[in-house]
Amino acid sequence: MRKLAILTAVLVGSIGPASAQQTPSPTAGPPSAPPPYGVPIDLARAEKAIAASIAEATRRGWTMDLAVVDSGANLVAFARMDGTQLASAAIAEHKARASALFRRPTRAFEEAAHNGAAALSLDGVIAAAGGVPLVEDGKLIGAIGCSGGTSTEDETTCLAGAATINGAGN
Questions:
Q1: What secondary structure letter does DSSP report for 37?
Q2: Residue 19 belongs to a domain
Q3: Helix, strand or coil for residue 5?
Q4: Count of domains in the chain?
Q5: CA 11 to each of CA 31, 122, 126, 128: distance values in angstroms, whole numbers, following the listed order
Q6: What mean pLDDT comes out for the span 101-125?
Q7: How far is CA 142 from CA 12, 27, 55, in A?
Q8: pLDDT above 70 covers what percent of the chain?
Q9: pLDDT (tens digit, 9 = 90+) per residue, 46-81?
Q10: 138, CA 20 to 30 Å: which among 16, 19, 28, 36?
Q11: Assigned domain for 96 exists
Q12: Is there a domain that residue 13 lies in?
């Protein structure tokens, strides 16, 4: 059991910081700690994030499923754009949940998988970009997950929604 706890700590610690915008330099010290949990996002703000993501996807001609979860990874809001593949509903929610539970963008898991880390063995991980934490006043209030395109398209769509929270003077 002790080996498992150590392995999990090493794997989670190797995934990196909780911010999609931070790229550690080769000379940087250890990654910063993920944000602490905050008050869960409410429905109105979750819907605002989804609306911004839908606007971004529509502008780019993409179809997406979008999910927002609270800081406890509970579904708060969901939307499906017409024509999105059926599997995307579960994937979008999974990305949002993983991002909230691990307090980091799911891109961190995708990058860890490409680098050979065994992060995929952790329960709840999804190694595909498109899950982004929602952080207000330095605290995680939820996460948004998008699915329907490539990992990069999913993440781009999520970042538009996350900007309504993360970029709102924080």
A1: B
A2: no
A3: helix
A4: 1
A5: 13, 9, 14, 17
A6: 83
A7: 19, 31, 20
A8: 76
A9: 999 999 999 999 999 999 999 999 999 999 999 999
A10: 28
A11: yes
A12: no
The yes-or-no verdict on residue 156 having pLDDT over 90 is yes
Q: What range does the domain containing 120 cover?
A: 37-166
For residue 56, the domain's CATH number is: 3.30.450.150
Helices in the chain by DSSP H: which ranges? 2-15, 43-60, 88-102, 107-114, 151-166
Contacts 24+ apart (CB under 8 A), 15-19: 15/102, 15/104, 15/108, 15/109, 15/112, 15/117, 15/119, 16/104, 16/108, 16/111, 16/112, 17/104, 17/108, 18/103, 18/104, 18/105, 18/108, 18/133, 18/135, 18/140, 19/104, 19/105, 19/133
Average pLDDT over residues 15-38: 54
Q: What are the Cα distances from residue 60, in Å, to 22, 42, 52, 91, 92?
A: 25, 28, 13, 20, 18
3-class secondary structure, 8: helix
Token match 């309504």: residue? Answer: 164
For residue 115, is it within any domain? yes
CA atoms within 13 A on the CB side of 147: 21
